[in-house]
C-alpha cells in the first residue's frame, strides 16, 4: 500500500465520500444545488463514522508537530534567557567598581 501524509489521505477520503454520496443522490434523481447540499451534508455525517481512524491519525500527527514546535521554542527561549542572564551578570560585574559619578 502507498504511504501518504495523513492530511492528504484524510482529504482524499473525504472528497471520495462526497463524490460517492453525490453520485448516489444523482441516481436517486437529485440535480443542481440540492444535489450538492444533500451530498455534502450526507458525506459530512458519514465521515464522522466512516473516517474516524484516518481523522485520529491526522490529529495525532498534528499534535506531534505542535508538541515538537513547542519544545523547540521553549529550548530557544531558555537559551535566550540564559544568554540574557549571562550578559546581565557580566554587566553587574563591571558595575562592581563602585558607584557611577553623576554628570552634571
Automatic annotation (TrEMBL):
Annotated organism of origin: Arsenicicoccus piscis
Transmembrane parts of this sequence: 7-27, 33-51
Keywords: Membrane, Transmembrane, Transmembrane helix
Domain of life assignment: Bacteria
Region of interest called Disordered, as start-end residue ranges on this chain: 83-104
Keyword Transmembrane: yes
Biased composition (Basic and acidic residues): 91-104
Keyword Membrane set for record: yes
Pfam families per record: DUF4229
UniProt name for this protein: DUF4229 domain-containing protein
